[in-house]
Fold this sequence. Notes:
Blueprint: E1 5-8, H1 9-15, H2 38-44, H3 50-61, E2 65-75, E3 89-98, E4 103-112, H4 115-124, H5 132-149
Helix pairs in contact: 1-2, 2-3, 4-5
Amino acid sequence: MVGGATMTQVTLLKIANEEPNKGPEREDWINPPELDSPAARELIDPAVDETTKRQAAYELLSAPFFLVYQIDLVDAPMALGIKDLKRGTVGARALRFDSKGAIVCIKIMNFQNTLATSDDAILKSNLAVMDPKVAAALRDDLRAQLLLRVPALGRAD
């Protein structure tokens, strides 16, 4: 899982000039740019000049493989601003494609809000609606949990 070009599915869709489907799985907070190779970020940045974009495309096409992070499920109602007092869960996959575009490996990642963050959010949720600050803290926690799991993808199970 180490040594190829990495990107989120949202970035891949933007590179292909495809509009991502609406939904929490496609939001920026759960598709962090830290997962994208610099070349992938340059290709979707409208401020980057055409020469740099061509160089970025060459760099991506020269990669030995592509690793695409795909968020499949965001079952985190409080993080989405819905008052349903349960711990947030996210299901994702890391899809490794060879240089020709064939899938050669899939790693499944499931993670949740930390128990302390979730319990704290439940205690603070005494209003009829979710406090936006509490929802933001839960989103930040889920994003951090994703970023913690990515380095472990190369380990043998």
